[in-house]
Amino acid sequence: MATDVTANKPFFDALLAENNLLWPAIIRCNEHPCSEKTDSAGPLPPDVLASLKPWLAQAPDSMRADGVEQKPVFYWDFKEDTRKLALLDDMQLSRLALVAGVTLHAPALAHVVTRDERRSCCEILGEDMLDYAQTRGQYQTGTAGDIMAHRDTEIPLPERCRAHGWLALYYCSLRWPKELRRLFLVRLTHLSEGYVAKVSLGDALSDAAWQALWRLMKKCLLREVVPSWKPYFTA
Fold it and tell me: Hey, is 61 helix, strand or coil?
């Protein structure tokens, strides 16, 4: 995807600053053994791209869609905060989906008291996540909990938490450019271990609901998953 280098120069200057954690993540997001023409590689000058190609050719391809027959698509514009979710590695993304799903349903999880209910929740979510939901997690849900509270109630609560965490990530990506959204959805489908298939993705959220969900996702991300990324997000 072509990028307006001039318009985004301050963003790229900041990315190249010492110890910036997003620049390696952006490179990793775009890594792909590539023998195609390099004029689609966005803002990187040819000499910089040439120096990177040997490293990219050996790098793991985990952040890109496997088996995509189209030409590699490079994407560099991560100034908008929600798009930074695409820069999480697989482990971070899976952790965020779990934390988000538990946080969305933390008020319900706070009422889990019987031995059988607790065992079921611990088996699927982990004991640490149940403890989180029943302590600080329930105070982070906010109005975003209303978005998921009455969805898919036929699914047991622990599995609903898992499915709705991935669904929340899907909803966050709906406003992204289609190239980035397509690659991200492939990752979600692959990483979710079938939980995405358990629910109907449905239509886009209203603006108010989307904003509420993103506020919750950002809290989960920066408090529970990668606190070190906080400087790269707007207040």
Answer: coil
Neighbours of 83 (CB within 10 A): 19
Nearest to 212 by CA among 108, 142, 149, 107: 142
Q: DSSP label at 225? A: I
For 222-227, which contacts have Cβ atoms below 8 Å and span 24 or more sequence positions? 223/140, 224/95, 224/99, 224/132, 225/88, 225/92, 225/95, 225/96, 225/99, 226/88, 226/92
Query: Within 10 Å of residue 4's Cβ, how many Cβ atoms?
Result: 10
How many CA atoms lie less than 13 Å away from 15 in the CB half-sphere?
Answer: 17
Q: Is the pTM of this model over 0.85?
A: no
What single letter denotes the amino acid at residue 54?
A: P
Q: Which range has the worst mean pLDDT, 5-9, 10-14, 54-58? A: 5-9
The DSSP secondary-structure symbol of 73 reads -
**pLDDT tens for each residue of 67-112:** 444 566 677 889 899 999 999 999 999 999 999 999 999 999 999 9
